[in-house]
Amino acid sequence: MIGIARLRRISSGQRLLALAGAAVFLGVPLAGCGASAPTSPKAATVTFALPPDSTSTYIFPLQSLTDAGPVDDNQFQMLMYRPLYWFGLNGRAVFNPALSLAAAPVFSNGGRTVTINLKNWQWSTGHPITSRDVEFWINELIAEKDNWYGYVPGAFPDNLVSESYPTARQVVLTFNQTYGQQWLLYNELSQITPLPQYAWDKTAASSPVGNYDQTASGAAAVYTYLNGQSKDLLSYATNPLWQVVDGPFRLQTYNAANAYTVLVPNRNYSGTPKATIGRLVEQPFTSYASELNGLRSGAIDYGYLPPTEVNNSSYFKAHGYTVASWPLWGIAYAVYNFTNPTVGPIFSQLYFRQALQKMVDQAQYIKQFWGGYAVPTYGPVPLSPVTPYLTKYESSNPYPYDPTAARALLSSNGWAKDSSGVLSCLHPGTGPGECGAGIAQGQQASFTILYTSGNDAYSNQMAAFQSVLAQAGIQLTLKQAPFGDVEAAAFGCSSGTPCTWDMAWWAGWSWDPDYLPTAGEIFHTGAGGNAGGYSNSEADQLITAEHTQTGNQPIEAAENFFAKNLPVLYLPQFSNQISVVKNTLHGWQPQDPVGNIYPQNWTVSG
């Protein structure tokens, strides 16, 4: 599914969304190794720096799109609540059977039925993880699918025909048709997160635990309770619900004012290895300046530099740190609002999207604004790391930077500058050389793009794009807002009500927890991650083939289509972050491209 930088999963790159601003500190003392290393590795406190103004604010592992993000997911929830199947192995976005709660799925009935055999894992209380915990999550999802960021109409759980739980260790799911086995594992079963039914199946703090989830109304009531508890940040560290975990860590401290978080090892963690550090501090920051001060003082063990500060890497290398790019398994893009009644008809013209794409100088943006720590985006499959899914067509850049060709394309389709110097539709209509359906005579090519504030690289890139468009006669107004506000605006329209924004850029999409780079979550008609309302019948058919057919050919066919058809404006995909890590911290490499951290692997030396 989603990613959104982590984005929402998107997204997520969210680590670099707000790395500039005033040097305002949080008022919470930095906890960390400091200048002197701990005397005992088991007592070590490791301080991990969070992105400025991007923190963990949702703990229940069934969240809406506006609640989901890479900090909430990969660096908070997933340290405590493990998905049924784990993805991320030696720096690759692939299935990791050793860290999964179940053995690899077994397919039968022509591929329609999946049998899942759970391993002998337990909750932190010692209670076994059973098929009832899987059922609990699925029942909650079915009841509240519209409140789940990973929901795609027609996909999981809509495509479930039946589910059964023959034993405490076995789950049997039957789907409505045969799907590709790799797609089912990577993009459907990957989304399941067992929840402690024996402790969480409640409708109120005072109610007894029951089997409420086994009716639709009961499951909805349970969700209402758990969602409400997850939004009560003041109670995170004291709420007994959140002390029942199955991940390598549990929550010890949480400051609701700024999301300062302390996690300690779950001594009943069933996986290996078990954590040897004493505490993991997730330190929030309000600005890049305060995080940089923490790095220089030695109070941060695992921090970051923004691309605008890459020249400082030599300083940290000389002062006992390793500097390393953290790649992201994702893509970056700005979204067109095809549902906007005014500008939507313009964006619906492929020639216009082609012209806009030809005015994006990705190579120059990467060099000038991202310090080289980014890769171009040309379609739905990331260019890095290289995978078998990447086609020659997409990787060759179908729309290289060429403003002259872009202007000619617009001119040949009925656009010309008016007396104000702005392009307007001179020849309305749907025939050759005309502007296209829904575009009135004299309508100007004037748009506003809402994008994430707080990052100089973002602002500089947008300003450069604005300048090139202006030379072509396209008027682009830049409007900034915090990440959450941009995302809320893009995804906040009620069903059937057109959004009034023109374009939005919050970051892009990271392939997690749908790890196979199929486009259903972001480009299928009606998909939850399809903020702009893009709809194309051929695209929907190609996505269906990605889901139902085996092999890489369906993925490649869809990939080439979306690289050519431009459902979004493709932009450079920056690294998740440029990590700055103390040389006394070991076991953190390779960094996971889907954004997970593995502090249970970390050790601290003298």
List keywords for this structure.
Dipeptide-binding Protein, domain 1; Dipeptide-binding Protein, domain 3; five-stranded mixed beta sheet; disordered N terminus; four-stranded mixed beta sheet
What does this structure look like?
- The chain has 606 residues and is an alpha+beta fold.
- It folds into three domains: 4-80 and 247-328 and 577-604, D-Maltodextrin-Binding Protein, domain 2 (3-Layer(aba) Sandwich), CATH 3.40.190.10; 86-200, Dipeptide-binding Protein, domain 1; 330-574, Roll (Dipeptide-binding Protein, domain 3), CATH 3.10.105.10.
- It is 25% helix and 21% strand.
- It contains 17 helices and 26 strands.
- The strands form nine sheets. Strands 20-19-21-15-22 form a five-stranded mixed β-sheet, sandwiched between helices. The protein has a four-stranded mixed β-sheet with strand order 3-12-11-10. The chain has a four-stranded antiparallel β-sheet with strand order 6-7-9-8, covered by helices on one side.
- Strand 4 and strand 5 form a beta hairpin.
- The longest helix has 17 residues, at 456-472.
- The two termini are 42 Å apart.
